Amino acid sequence: MPYTPSHQRYASMEYRRCGNSGLKLPALSLGLWHNFGHVDVLENSRQILRQAFDAGVTHFDLANNYGPPPGSAEENFGKILHEDFRGYRDELIISSKAGYKMWEGPYGEWGSRKYLISSLDQSLRRMKLDYVDIFYSHRPDPNTPLEETMGALDAIVRQGKALYVGISNYETPEATRAIQILRELGTPCLIHQPKYSMLVRWVEESLLDLLEREGVGCIPFSPLAQGLLTNKYLKGIPAESRAAKPHGFLKEEEITPSRVEQMRQLDALAQERGQSLAQMALAWLLKDPRVTSVLIGASTPAQLTDSLQCLHHTQFSEDELAQIETILQGA
Ligand SMILES: NC(=O)c1ccc[n+]([C@@H]2O[C@H](COP(=O)([O-])OP(=O)(O)OC[C@H]3O[C@@H](n4cnc5c(N)ncnc54)[C@H](OP(=O)(O)O)[C@@H]3O)[C@@H](O)[C@H]2O)c1
Q1: Ligand 1 touching residue 133 (CB < 6 A)
Q2: For the whole model, what pTM was predicted?
């Protein structure tokens, strides 16, 4: 069936300014790490993307290695983009990254200028795009001068292959230096992409303060801890879940009885708030104005529908926040 985007697509989404930049991002963005590779069902991936765009999700996040096999999420996304979203490129923010292992030999990973520039060229070919909106250094490289990695990002913008650049998985000291180098080069760091959820909270120590001070946006990834922060594992491991899939990054060992009990308590609190646990976990991140957008994953259109409803209720009482802390510390 040919796709016509909903005319209501901008009616209910909230858009937040990304740091001090001119760019706004939707409060929820969609990541293609899982569920968009050649191992997945293309029509399901297509439905998720259509539904996201219909709901005002204008930002899709990729990386060179997403699949499996690596590169296949970009290939599938490029196919769907050209079949379904032709004519809507200017309504989309598409990001990609390089940093993790993508090809054999000394130039296929980390942070050299050689790797970053050739990897982005490959990503553009896979997605059949002239440029991405945001290109990230996916992880810091301890063996390459930060000046070289940031210089490559600056060059990529000057070559017209990306409109903005960002960093991901950089801890506060290296993020501080990266932001400074990029500013000196005249290509400000748009955004930082760290792992952040109720279960992973290192960014609260100093990273969020740094980003606010420097006018850099923040887009937390794995906000549902890959599905742990939902009601799906309360009664065992469902066959279709990420934890059950051989290529899934969530491992069965992470679903311990004490973790499940914690999720049960959070789920009860979410129900009192009139939300699913997934919705509460996303709303909990969005309550912080330093969070520009929350980067979710979804394996079905129904999950996306569920998660999007978090936007209806992002306020928390002091009492609810205290109860959440008590549950989280009880693990
Ligand atoms: N920069 C980095 O290093 C990095 C690393 C990881 C991820 N990311 C980015 O962040 C994005 C999101 O990561 P993530 O997929 O781990 O995010 P997530 O939102 O924490 O987990 C998504 C998974 O949770 C389950 N789920 C989602 N919504 C649900 C709902 N409403 N009810 C029940 N279950 C639900 C699904 O798992 P099932 O498959 O079990 O159904 C889904 O695949 C990635 O796609 C990628 O773009 C970046």
Answers
A1: no
A2: 0.98
